Amino acid sequence: MLKTNILMLCLFVSNASENCSRFPDGCCPGYKKNYVTGNCTECNDGFSGINCSRMCLYPSYGPKCKSECACSNDSCHFKNGCSNEFTTEIEFGMTNWSSTTSTDFTATSIQTRISLVLLVCTSVFLLLFFLAYGSSKLRKHFKNRTMVDERSTAEENYYQTIPEKHF
Known about the structure:
The structure is a single chain. By secondary structure, the chain is an alpha+beta fold. It is built from two helices and ten strands, in the order αββββββββββα.
């Protein structure tokens, strides 16, 4: 009996490894090679296939892509399922890079953004208007001052040339 159990176990182990030896790195679909340990490890959540090269397709998500989203394609994340906050993982060799992006846009946040844009545009318009108004006033002031100076110089010259017989 013990020999039978050991024989069955050996056959199972040899079949499992034999079936996966034809895949890249000797790992079965749903697994990838860990080059540090040399062993095959299960795919990260949201990935499946040979060497974990396939991202879960809608509506599937999660470990081995076996869970199913009950929301729209836009709201279904390949790793986390239905959520307003997504975490994106990009794998480069042995390093996992991740970033979190919030997609929780409410009517209030959109109204706040529109109000902010309108406030900035109005401020820029008023600034330009007052700059133009002030520069036109300065231009008129200096133009009038130049004309007054020219008139006074002409009058002074006129009185300097009065013939002496008028005295």
